[in-house]
Amino acid sequence: MRSIQSVPGHDEPQVVERDRPVPGPGQVLVETVAAAVNPVDAFVASSLGTDLVAGGRQVGLGWDVSGRVAEVGPDVTAYAVGDPVAGLDDDMVGADRALAEYVLLDAEAVAVVPEGLDLVEAASIPLNSVTAHQALALLGEPDGRSLLVTGAGGAVGGYAVALARAAGWDVTGLGRPGDEEFVRSTGAGFTAHVEPASYDAVLDGAVLQAGALAYVKDGGTFVGVQPSQPVPTERGITVTAVQVRRDGALLADLLRRSADGELAVRVAGTAPLHEAATVFAKVGGGGQRGRWLLVP
């Protein structure tokens, strides 16, 4: 099978022939319909990223996949061959990952794609929606507090403003002027400028780090999305960062909410697998709204 890999000595992803995986106990093999390209993939595909993340080893790329179950492990009963599913591969240094013609996942990492949700577009959902939900959980209950989401027009931030609003937060999204219509469509407020120490909590989807910490009131809460680069605490602020983890039950709920129209499904475009390098360059350049998907 073809697999998109980060290969030492190359600054762009490589299409590599790999053996088709065989599912073991508790595993599901998915025949890929689409897989998303995220900024972290573009970084890991570079020589610097390969060295920092994978220790200079060749590794697979990709976090999100949608497709149909091709095989199941001997003890898997929740899924059957042919089921439409989406999944989250959270093994950042796996030999083969979601950007491949076949993807091997633990059964607990996948969920059935409900009717009403396009199977190709479903590949845009897992990583960023699960990250946003798990980041919000770190903030605790709203309790009338104000929340600022940075990067509110982006992937994690876009889900975060919608999920926070649905959970009862007094939420404002920080973004570019062109993001205002989308952010307000979630029911959240919007701003392009923030005064220091003006929110009870900040979810830093834009990875502003210390710059976003400045927006938190004394004694407030800050949640980042880069656990490998923690932000030093100050002014009695509780500082933490989300480390996304697969959660099939949560993913199933997020897929359902997407199918129901509660969460916007945003796809920037699709391209065939052999055009991976071109798509990675676009994603690595930043500023994308919605996810680029590779289709085998």
From TrEMBL:
Source species of the chain: Nocardioides islandensis
CDD domains per record: MDR_like_2
Segments of this protein annotated with the region Disordered: 1-23
InterPro entries documented for this protein: ADH-like_N, ER, GroES-like_sf, Lipid_raft_assoc_Zn_ADH, NAD(P)-bd_dom_sf
UniProt-recorded name of the protein: NADP-dependent oxidoreductase
Lineage, uppermost ranks: Bacteria, Bacillati, Actinomycetota, Actinomycetes, Propionibacteriales
Stretches assigned to the Enoyl reductase (ER) domain: 9-294
Bias (Basic and acidic residues): 9-21
GO molecular function: oxidoreductase activity
Alphabetical list of Gene3D superfamilies matching this protein: Medium-chain alcohol dehydrogenases, catalytic domain, NAD(P)-binding Rossmann-like Domain
